Amino acid sequence: MLTLGFVAVDDFPEYFLAFLEALIGLMLIAILIAYLPTIYGAFQRREQMVNMLEVRAGSPPTAWEMIARYHRIHGLDRLNDQWRAWELWFVDIEESHTSIFAVVFFRSQQPDRSWITAAGAILDAAAFARSTLDLPSDPQADLCIRAGFITLRRICDFFRIPYNPNPKAGDPISITRAEFDQVYDDLHAQGIPLKADREQAWRDYAGWRVNYDMPLLALCSLTMAPYAPWSSDRSIRIQNIVRPGTVKQVSIETINKEIA
């Protein structure tokens, strides 16, 4: 059970150490086998919500499709339930994806799904709800956004991906004003109640997006996420990996090699 082959030795300490080494290897294999259910459990919890999102936000998921479907089917007041559920999802992701980092790279069963693009769609939907939809203020959406960008930042910290930890409301984001206006017009054409002050809505949306824009795009590049509007459709080049006492100029390919 312990060795494939063994050469007899005269010295008992050597004899003992040889079998001890083989026994340790067997114990490590047993530990790894026992650890696999924990890894799969984290993956399964993550993918359950990702799969459910396709029903609510399409494939690939988008914030505007989610809002439109809720308007047609449930009513926009039911979005509160989603913000609560996804806040808990983000908390679970932060814990599992920083303690079992390999799960970050586990891909969904369907090629057009990804946990990171799902996160981007939910964060954009919550940011739209708070900035653009003409609805009563919902603090649960705020909590969902905050849980989301904290989670993405913690994962970026683990992989030493740089980002601005204290962005300002006026800082640039990857979404253009023209893209925002197009979504605004599409939602308005579907009869969805929107705030009349489009300029202020854009500023408020950008103020929310700036908190997670860079971590979201960086993790999409890191995981090579499938196409999804406003997340993996715009690449970001990771400029720095910060190590103690050094700053190196690297690309995403370099990061992948270092992780491997």
> Which range best describes the helical content: under 10%, 10-25%, 25-40%, 40-55%, 55-70% or over 70%?
55-70%
Distance between the termini: 32 Å
Largest sheet, spatial ordering of strands: 1-2
How would you characterize the largest beta sheet? 2 strands, antiparallel
**Average pLDDT score:** 87
Our count of domains comes out at: 1
Give the beta-strand count.
2
Percent of residues in beta strands? under 5%
Number of helices: 9
Described by the principal axes of the CA atoms, the overall outline is: elongated
What's the SSE pattern?
HHHHHHHHEEH
- Gyration radius from CA atoms, angstroms: 23 Å
Uncertain parts: 238-260
SS-based class: mainly alpha
Furnish the topology, listing elements before pairings.
Elements (H helix, E strand, L loop, with lengths): L11 H46 L5 H11 L5 H21 L15 H17 L7 H20 L18 H13 L8 H12 L3 H11 L16 E4 L2 E4 L2 H8 L1
Antiparallel strand pairs: 1-2
Helix pairs in contact: 1-3, 2-4, 3-5, 4-5, 4-7, 4-8, 5-8
